[in-house]
Specification:
This protein is of the alpha/beta class. Helix content is 45%, strand content 15%. It binds uracil (URA).
């Protein structure tokens, strides 16, 4: 390509459409122009859709990631003392791990500079969940971020307009144009933020299953390997776990309700009046914490990491870190001591089974879309969220069900059409007469 004569946007899109490899310069020029608002959304979307269908070579993916990092500023975390390791998930339903894991890993001695996202497609976002806490500020200045990391050890922030603005633009367009499930686009989206945020290490939780963007293990393995290779090129130490997403993680789905479940796990006390369990959520959090501690060289191996993580959950230090972090980010820490506030809702309805048998199938994608329909997520860029709506699942895959048992508690509001919600939820939980075991939670504990 002649650097004096950049490709026009239509020529750039055409090359991608026709599977002709784009050069580093061509990608860089397109990304810079797109992030400055010089390319209209319809041309950016045409490029995203062409990439969705034709994919990218490894070099194109690495160059796209680099250009997206260069579209904004990079944080210099050299003033933060100690190993800095972040975690990111590719997105799921009821996935509230980051909210527990950030403070837990900090309580174990790591620095956790966590830059998290909002909802994407049918999946929820950590920032939307944290914003259910009154006063919580997800946007911090660079100086505040560094200060909180030094004082407390963890901060969970959203991407500011200065960090990877190209990803902000692409992410918002992908969310509403069916261009999410694409390995080069997911890789560049995640890693551009993480490289710009200045972390030394990253643990990826790659979700696999009907509620995930990667429906099959082979695709998820390919994503893990692409992420590892691109991260390595940028000097970020990346570990990856593959975990199941054929059902919601934990029992709560919905922003404020998920904060309630996080408080319960962090406090290490049974709070919910229904006796619901968070075994899977705890197990995955402890495993990912062990991986972070090993990547940051706080421990020698995963089993040492697990022991440390369990002890920091049990001795209350993760809970203390969580409250400190929330307070430092402007949140009402007192409200966390009264967790029932997070499950107060205008109207609470129990959905009961008319059948007996076992839960053999769930539809987490449908559950995620239903939450959006109730106002708990977005259908349009920038739309407000109703934090209080959501569900508590009393039954999960493998559970035995008797006629009359509660399947789901629905937390709605004045606008909720409970009949419709009941009909949909019943169609999302398949009850059969023969038992089927619950799927394995951790499908690959450490992808190499
Ligand atoms: N998380 C991200 O930040 N980007 C994606 O594309 C998917 C999950």
């Amino acid at each position: 390509m002649n650097p004096l004569q950049p490709l026009s946007a239509p020529e750039f899109i055409q090359k991608k459409r026709d599977e002709i490899e784009l050069s580093a310069d061509e990608i860089s020029q397109f990304v810079q122009a797109a992030s400055k608002g010089e390319i209209p959304d319809y041309q950016i979307t045409a490029f995203l859709m062409a990439t969705y269908f034709t994919g990218m070579t490894f070099d194109e993916t690495a160059n796209l990631t680099k250009s997206m990092v260069e579209s904004g500023e990079r944080y210099d975390l050299s003033k933060v003392k100690g190993a800095k390791v972040d975690k990111h998930s590719t997105g799921g339903i009821g996935d509230k791990v980051s909210i527990i894991l950030g403070p837990l890993a900090a309580a174990c001695g790591l620095k956790v500079p966590m830059m998290a996202g909002r909802g994407l497609g049918h999946t929820g976002g950590t920032i939307d969940k944290l914003e259910a806490i009154p006063g919580y500020r997800a946007v911090l200045s660079k100086e505040e971020f560094v200060q909180i990391l030094n004082d407390i050890g963890c901060a969970i922030i959203s991407q500011s307009e200065h960090i990877a603005p190209a990803d902000r633009k692409f992410y918002a367009l992908r969310d509403v144009t069916a261009t999410i499930e694409c390995i080069p686009l997911i890789t560049s989206s995640i890693l551009s933020k993480k490289i710009a945020e200045g972390t030394n290490g990253l643990v990826m939780d790659i979700k696999v299953g009907s509620g995930a963007f990667m429906k099959r293990k082979t695709e998820a393995m390919q994503l893990a390997k692409t992420l590892r290779a691109v991260a390595k090129k940028s000097g970020v130490e990346l570990r990856a776990t593959l975990s199941n997403m054929d059902q919601p993680l934990g029992y709560a789905v919905g922003n404020a309700l998920e904060i309630y479940e996080c408080i319960e796990v962090l406090k290490n006390e049974k709070l919910n009046p229904y006796g619901l369990s968070s075994v899977d959520l705890k197990e995955l959090t402890i495993h990912l914490c062990a991986q972070m501690l090993e990547a940051g060289k706080v421990v020698k191996n995963l089993s040492e990491g697990r022991k440390l993580a369990i002890s920091r959950l049990q001795d209350g230090s993760a809970w203390t870190k969580f409250k400190q972090m929330i307070q430092a980010q402007g949140g009402d820490a007192e409200s966390l001591e009264e967790p029932w506030r997070y499950m107060k809702s205008a109207k609470v309805v129990e959905i009961r089974s008319t059948k007996k048998g076992y839960v053999t199938e769930m539809n987490p994608e449908g559950i995620g879309r239903l939450l959006i329909q109730l106002g708990g997520g977005r259908n349009q860029v920038g739309a407000p969220i109703e934090h209080e709506v959501g569900f508590f699942f009393h039954k999960k895959l493998g559970s035995q069900v008797k006629a009359g048992d509660t399947l789901v508690t629905v937390f709605g509001n004045a606008k909720t059409n409970f009949e419709n919600v009941e009909r949909l939820l019943k169609s999302y939980l398949k009850i059969s007469t023969s038992k089927k075991a619950a799927p394995k939670l951790i499908l690959e504990a450490n992808v190499r």
